[in-house]
Write a structure and sequence with these properties.
By secondary structure, this protein is an alpha/beta fold.
Protein backbone atom coordinates (compact mmCIF):
# COMPACT_ATOMS: atom_id res chain seq x y z
CA UNK A 1 0.00 0.00 0.00
CA UNK A 2 1.67 3.24 -1.17
CA UNK A 3 1.23 6.11 1.28
CA UNK A 4 1.50 9.89 1.05
CA UNK A 5 0.86 12.36 3.86
CA UNK A 6 -0.59 15.71 2.82
CA UNK A 7 0.38 18.32 5.39
CA UNK A 8 3.91 18.70 6.78
CA UNK A 9 3.04 20.18 10.14
CA UNK A 10 4.14 18.53 13.35
CA UNK A 11 1.53 15.74 13.24
CA UNK A 12 1.95 14.94 9.56
CA UNK A 13 5.71 14.84 9.99
CA UNK A 14 5.42 12.60 13.05
CA UNK A 15 3.21 10.17 11.15
CA UNK A 16 5.75 10.10 8.32
CA UNK A 17 8.48 9.20 10.80
CA UNK A 18 6.38 6.45 12.39
CA UNK A 19 5.04 4.93 9.18
CA UNK A 20 8.46 4.87 7.53
CA UNK A 21 9.09 1.80 9.70
CA UNK A 22 6.79 -0.06 7.27
CA UNK A 23 8.26 1.29 4.02
CA UNK A 24 8.56 4.40 1.84
CA UNK A 25 6.36 7.40 2.69
CA UNK A 26 5.93 10.67 0.82
CA UNK A 27 5.42 13.81 2.91
CA UNK A 28 3.95 16.83 1.10
CA UNK A 29 3.85 20.43 2.21
CA UNK A 30 3.21 23.69 0.36
CA UNK A 31 6.61 25.14 1.15
CA UNK A 32 9.22 22.93 2.72
CA UNK A 33 12.60 24.52 3.25
CA UNK A 34 13.76 22.77 6.36
CA UNK A 35 15.55 19.76 4.88
CA UNK A 36 15.38 16.62 7.05
CA UNK A 37 14.37 18.24 10.34
CA UNK A 38 11.04 19.99 10.81
CA UNK A 39 11.51 22.93 13.23
CA UNK A 40 8.14 22.03 14.73
CA UNK A 41 9.70 18.74 15.88
CA UNK A 42 13.16 19.75 17.10
CA UNK A 43 15.61 16.90 17.45
CA UNK A 44 13.68 14.57 15.13
CA UNK A 45 15.41 13.72 11.85
CA UNK A 46 13.35 12.24 9.03
CA UNK A 47 14.40 8.66 8.27
CA UNK A 48 15.67 7.78 4.78
CA UNK A 49 12.36 6.14 3.65
CA UNK A 50 10.57 9.52 3.94
CA UNK A 51 10.56 11.51 0.71
CA UNK A 52 9.77 15.21 1.25
CA UNK A 53 8.21 17.22 -1.57
CA UNK A 54 6.25 20.36 -2.36
CA UNK A 55 5.04 18.76 -5.61
CA UNK A 56 1.43 17.77 -4.96
CA UNK A 57 1.28 15.73 -8.16
CA UNK A 58 4.11 13.53 -6.92
CA UNK A 59 2.37 12.98 -3.60
CA UNK A 60 -0.91 12.08 -5.31
CA UNK A 61 0.75 9.10 -7.00
CA UNK A 62 0.03 7.11 -3.82
CA UNK A 63 -3.16 5.09 -3.48
CA UNK A 64 -3.59 5.98 0.20
CA UNK A 65 -3.51 9.62 1.26
CA UNK A 66 -3.37 10.75 4.88
CA UNK A 67 -4.70 14.30 5.19
CA UNK A 68 -2.87 15.97 8.06
CA UNK A 69 -4.31 19.43 7.47
CA UNK A 70 -5.89 21.76 10.05
CA UNK A 71 -9.66 21.23 10.25
CA UNK A 72 -10.52 24.72 8.99
CA UNK A 73 -8.04 24.39 6.10
CA UNK A 74 -9.51 21.14 4.80
CA UNK A 75 -12.51 22.54 2.91
CA UNK A 76 -10.49 25.19 1.02
CA UNK A 77 -7.94 22.50 0.12
CA UNK A 78 -10.70 20.23 -1.18
CA UNK A 79 -12.22 23.11 -3.14
CA UNK A 80 -8.92 23.40 -4.99
CA UNK A 81 -7.83 19.77 -5.22
CA UNK A 82 -10.82 17.52 -4.48
CA UNK A 83 -11.13 15.97 -7.97
CA UNK A 84 -7.44 15.04 -7.95
CA UNK A 85 -7.92 13.12 -4.67
CA UNK A 86 -10.99 11.21 -5.78
CA UNK A 87 -10.98 7.45 -6.14
CA UNK A 88 -8.31 6.87 -3.49
CA UNK A 89 -8.28 5.82 0.14
CA UNK A 90 -8.45 9.06 2.11
CA UNK A 91 -7.55 9.01 5.81
CA UNK A 92 -8.37 12.22 7.65
CA UNK A 93 -6.46 13.19 10.79
CA UNK A 94 -8.01 16.64 11.40
CA UNK A 95 -10.05 17.05 14.58
CA UNK A 96 -12.72 19.68 14.16
CA UNK A 97 -16.02 20.82 12.68
CA UNK A 98 -16.06 23.11 9.68
CA UNK A 99 -17.25 26.56 10.73
CA UNK A 100 -19.12 27.36 7.54
CA UNK A 101 -20.73 24.00 6.86
CA UNK A 102 -21.07 22.75 10.48
CA UNK A 103 -20.00 19.30 9.31
CA UNK A 104 -17.02 17.09 10.06
CA UNK A 105 -14.16 16.21 7.72
CA UNK A 106 -15.70 12.93 6.54
CA UNK A 107 -18.72 14.65 5.02
CA UNK A 108 -16.53 17.29 3.38
CA UNK A 109 -14.41 14.52 1.86
CA UNK A 110 -17.45 12.55 0.72
CA UNK A 111 -18.89 15.56 -1.07
CA UNK A 112 -15.63 16.58 -2.71
CA UNK A 113 -14.45 13.05 -3.55
CA UNK A 114 -17.54 10.86 -4.05
CA UNK A 115 -15.59 7.89 -5.40
CA UNK A 116 -13.07 7.84 -2.55
CA UNK A 117 -13.05 5.51 0.45
CA UNK A 118 -12.95 7.62 3.60
CA UNK A 119 -11.46 6.87 6.99
CA UNK A 120 -10.38 8.80 10.08
CA UNK A 121 -7.29 8.28 12.21
CA UNK A 122 -7.79 9.77 15.65
CA UNK A 123 -7.19 9.26 19.33
CA UNK A 124 -4.94 10.32 22.24
CA UNK A 125 -1.62 11.34 20.73
CA UNK A 126 0.94 14.10 20.61
CA UNK A 127 3.15 14.55 17.57
CA UNK A 128 6.31 14.60 19.67
CA UNK A 129 5.47 11.26 21.27
CA UNK A 130 4.75 9.59 17.93
CA UNK A 131 7.90 11.01 16.34
CA UNK A 132 10.04 9.75 19.24
CA UNK A 133 8.63 6.26 18.87
CA UNK A 134 6.78 6.25 22.19
CA UNK A 135 3.95 3.69 22.44
CA UNK A 136 0.68 5.16 21.14
CA UNK A 137 -2.77 3.68 20.51
CA UNK A 138 -5.21 5.25 18.04
CA UNK A 139 -8.60 4.56 16.49
CA UNK A 140 -8.94 3.85 12.77
CA UNK A 141 -12.54 4.45 11.73
CA UNK A 142 -13.87 3.38 8.34
CA UNK A 143 -17.45 2.53 7.39
CA UNK A 144 -16.15 -0.10 4.95
CA UNK A 145 -14.96 -2.92 7.21
CA UNK A 146 -12.69 -4.55 4.64
CA UNK A 147 -10.88 -1.32 3.85
CA UNK A 148 -10.68 -0.60 7.56
CA UNK A 149 -8.84 -3.88 8.16
CA UNK A 150 -6.41 -3.18 5.33
CA UNK A 151 -5.67 0.32 6.63
CA UNK A 152 -5.35 -0.95 10.19
CA UNK A 153 -2.57 -3.32 9.16
CA UNK A 154 -0.87 -0.85 6.82
CA UNK A 155 -0.78 1.99 9.35
CA UNK A 156 0.14 0.01 12.47
CA UNK A 157 3.77 -0.27 13.55
CA UNK A 158 5.51 -1.97 16.51
CA UNK A 159 4.87 1.18 18.60
CA UNK A 160 1.74 2.58 16.91
CA UNK A 161 -1.24 0.35 17.65
CA UNK A 162 -4.53 0.95 15.82
CA UNK A 163 -7.96 -0.21 16.98
CA UNK A 164 -10.63 -0.51 14.29
CA UNK A 165 -14.25 0.69 14.23
CA UNK A 166 -16.91 1.28 11.59
CA UNK A 167 -18.36 4.20 13.58
CA UNK A 168 -16.83 7.01 11.57
CA UNK A 169 -19.22 9.59 13.04
CA UNK A 170 -18.41 8.73 16.65
CA UNK A 171 -14.65 8.63 16.15
CA UNK A 172 -14.64 11.91 14.28
CA UNK A 173 -16.83 13.76 16.78
CA UNK A 174 -14.92 12.45 19.76
CA UNK A 175 -11.72 13.93 18.38
CA UNK A 176 -13.36 17.24 17.55
CA UNK A 177 -15.41 17.80 20.68
CA UNK A 178 -12.69 16.92 23.17
CA UNK A 179 -10.68 19.95 22.01
CA UNK A 180 -13.47 22.23 23.23
CA UNK A 181 -13.48 20.62 26.66
CA UNK A 182 -9.67 20.78 26.79
CA UNK A 183 -9.87 24.56 26.42
CA UNK A 184 -12.36 24.68 29.29
CA UNK A 185 -10.05 22.54 31.44
CA UNK A 186 -7.16 24.88 30.66
CA UNK A 187 -9.27 27.89 31.63
CA UNK A 188 -10.06 26.30 34.98
CA UNK A 189 -6.41 25.63 35.81
CA UNK A 190 -5.20 28.96 34.41
CA UNK A 191 -7.75 30.82 36.53
CA UNK A 192 -6.63 28.94 39.65
CA UNK A 193 -9.97 27.21 40.19
CA UNK A 194 -8.35 23.91 41.11
CA UNK A 195 -8.22 20.25 40.08
CA UNK A 196 -11.66 19.49 41.52
CA UNK A 197 -13.16 22.03 39.15
CA UNK A 198 -11.19 20.52 36.28
CA UNK A 199 -12.53 17.06 37.11
CA UNK A 200 -16.06 18.47 37.03
CA UNK A 201 -15.43 20.13 33.65
CA UNK A 202 -14.03 16.90 32.18
CA UNK A 203 -16.96 14.85 33.46
CA UNK A 204 -19.72 17.23 32.46
CA UNK A 205 -17.90 17.96 29.22
CA UNK A 206 -17.87 14.27 28.39
CA UNK A 207 -21.62 14.21 28.97
CA UNK A 208 -21.98 17.08 26.47
CA UNK A 209 -19.79 15.27 23.94
CA UNK A 210 -21.85 12.10 24.24
CA UNK A 211 -25.20 13.90 23.93
CA UNK A 212 -24.28 15.69 20.74
CA UNK A 213 -22.42 12.78 19.14
CA UNK A 214 -25.22 10.28 19.73
CA UNK A 215 -27.75 12.81 18.48
CA UNK A 216 -25.76 12.89 15.24
CA UNK A 217 -25.67 9.10 14.96
CA UNK A 218 -22.59 8.03 16.91
CA UNK A 219 -22.53 4.89 19.00
CA UNK A 220 -22.13 5.62 22.74
CA UNK A 221 -19.41 3.00 23.14
CA UNK A 222 -17.25 4.83 20.61
CA UNK A 223 -17.20 7.88 22.88
CA UNK A 224 -15.93 5.77 25.77
CA UNK A 225 -13.02 4.55 23.67
CA UNK A 226 -9.70 6.01 22.56
CA UNK A 227 -11.22 8.54 20.18
CA UNK A 228 -13.47 10.01 22.88
CA UNK A 229 -12.64 9.49 26.53
CA UNK A 230 -9.02 8.57 25.80
CA UNK A 231 -8.32 11.72 23.82
CA UNK A 232 -10.31 13.83 26.28
CA UNK A 233 -8.21 12.59 29.19
CA UNK A 234 -4.96 13.38 27.42
CA UNK A 235 -5.78 16.87 26.21
CA UNK A 236 -7.41 17.99 29.47
CA UNK A 237 -4.44 17.01 31.61
CA UNK A 238 -1.29 17.77 29.63
CA UNK A 239 0.34 21.11 28.82
CA UNK A 240 1.52 19.52 25.55
CA UNK A 241 -2.04 20.14 24.30
CA UNK A 242 -2.33 23.46 22.43
CA UNK A 243 -6.02 23.57 23.30
CA UNK A 244 -5.26 23.19 27.00
CA UNK A 245 -2.50 25.81 26.80
CA UNK A 246 -4.81 28.22 24.99
CA UNK A 247 -7.44 27.78 27.69
CA UNK A 248 -4.79 28.22 30.37
CA UNK A 249 -3.78 31.51 28.78
CA UNK A 250 -7.41 32.64 28.72
CA UNK A 251 -7.88 31.70 32.36
CA UNK A 252 -4.67 33.40 33.45
CA UNK A 253 -5.29 36.49 31.26
CA UNK A 254 -1.92 35.80 29.62
CA UNK A 255 -0.76 36.57 26.09
CA UNK A 256 -1.27 34.00 23.34
CA UNK A 257 0.41 33.77 19.94
CA UNK A 258 -2.48 34.33 17.53
CA UNK A 259 -0.60 32.50 14.74
CA UNK A 260 -0.79 29.21 16.66
CA UNK A 261 -3.58 26.93 15.40
CA UNK A 262 -6.08 26.07 18.13
CA UNK A 263 -8.64 23.71 16.62
CA UNK A 264 -10.92 23.79 19.66
CA UNK A 265 -11.59 27.53 19.43
CA UNK A 266 -13.17 27.29 15.98
CA UNK A 267 -14.83 24.00 16.87
CA UNK A 268 -16.46 25.60 19.94
CA UNK A 269 -18.09 28.20 17.71
CA UNK A 270 -19.26 25.50 15.29
CA UNK A 271 -20.57 23.32 18.14
CA UNK A 272 -22.49 26.22 19.68
CA UNK A 273 -24.17 26.93 16.32
CA UNK A 274 -24.85 23.24 15.70
CA UNK A 275 -26.27 22.72 19.20
CA UNK A 276 -28.58 25.70 18.75
CA UNK A 277 -29.80 24.28 15.45
CA UNK A 278 -30.49 20.89 17.04
CA UNK A 279 -31.88 22.22 20.32
CA UNK A 280 -29.16 20.50 22.35
CA UNK A 281 -27.95 21.94 25.66
CA UNK A 282 -24.16 22.46 25.45
CA UNK A 283 -23.33 25.00 28.18
CA UNK A 284 -19.58 24.30 28.36
CA UNK A 285 -19.14 24.54 24.60
CA UNK A 286 -21.15 27.77 24.57
CA UNK A 287 -18.99 29.26 27.31
CA UNK A 288 -15.76 28.27 25.53
CA UNK A 289 -17.02 29.91 22.34
CA UNK A 290 -17.89 33.08 24.25
CA UNK A 291 -14.53 33.14 26.04
CA UNK A 292 -12.55 32.55 22.83
CA UNK A 293 -14.39 35.42 21.17
CA UNK A 294 -13.94 37.74 24.16
CA UNK A 295 -17.69 38.08 24.73
CA UNK A 296 -17.54 37.08 28.39
CA UNK A 297 -15.00 37.16 31.22
CA UNK A 298 -13.68 34.05 32.97
CA UNK A 299 -15.40 35.06 36.22
CA UNK A 300 -18.71 35.59 34.44
CA UNK A 301 -18.40 32.26 32.58
CA UNK A 302 -17.75 30.37 35.82
CA UNK A 303 -20.67 32.10 37.52
CA UNK A 304 -23.03 31.27 34.65
CA UNK A 305 -22.08 27.58 34.79
CA UNK A 306 -22.29 27.32 38.59
CA UNK A 307 -25.67 29.06 38.84
CA UNK A 308 -27.45 26.93 36.27
CA UNK A 309 -30.60 25.17 37.57
CA UNK A 310 -29.86 22.15 39.75
CA UNK A 311 -30.76 18.80 38.17
CA UNK A 312 -30.13 15.06 38.22
CA UNK A 313 -26.82 13.85 36.84
Amino acid sequence: MTISILGAGAFGTALAVALSANGPVTLWGRSIGWGRENPRLPGVTLPAPVAVTDDLGAALAAGTLLLALPAQALRPFLDDHGPALDGRRLVNTAKGIDLDRLTGPAQLLAEACPAATIATLTGPSFAADIARGLPTALTLACADAETGRALQHALSTPVLRLYRTTDLTGAELGGALKNVIAIAAGVVIGAGLGDSARAAIITRGFAEMTRLATRLGARPETLTGLSGLGDLTLTCTSPQSRNFRFGHALGAAADWDATTTVEGAATARAVAALAARLGEDMPIAAMVAALAEGRVSVDKAADMLMTRPLKEE
